[in-house]
Amino acid sequence: MRKRGVKWKSDKYSRFKYLDPRASAVQRKTRRAVAAGRLVKPKNCSKCGRTDKPIQAHHEDYSEPFKVTWLCTGCHADIHNAEKYGLDGEARKKKEHERDLRRKLREHFAVPLGSEKKA
């Protein structure tokens, strides 16, 4: 049972709080503005135009909480990877492709359960 006056951290957002102390407050303001109808969340990505992936808000500057670029998860990851690791979209796609190939090879050559020969 929740004690009166105790605020619980949300695991979903708590891992991002160390990046910028203003980030969680700005994200909260953005979510509330969308819920209240003051900010309109489009159905498609503003960078690539995709509609089949979830759309996320990207803030270039946390001092302007309502200046938002709406991006799909892939484009949003491209921007943050470019900032963090210096990877552009093509480099990230190449790394993902290599990771998928390694996973498929492991799955292909793995011995299925129950198929081992018993001596």
Give the helix/strand layout:
Layout: H1 11-14, H2 23-36, E1 55-58, E2 69-72, H3 73-85, H4 89-109
Summarize the structure.
The protein is mainly alpha-helical. The protein has helices spanning 11-14, 23-36, 73-85, 89-109, and strands at residues 55-58, 69-72. It contains four helices and two strands; from the N terminus they run H-H-E-E-H-H.
Q: Considering DSSP H and I runs of 4 or more, what fraction of the residues is helical? A: 40-55%
Domain module count: 1
How many H/I helical runs? 4
The major pleated sheet works out as: 2 strands, antiparallel
What gross morphology would you assign?
elongated
Structural class by helix and strand composition: mainly alpha
Order of helices and strands: HHEEHH
Distance between the termini: 56 Å
Question: What is the tally of beta strands?
Answer: 2
Strand line-up across the major sheet? 1-2
Strand content: 5-15%
The chain-level mean pLDDT equals 76
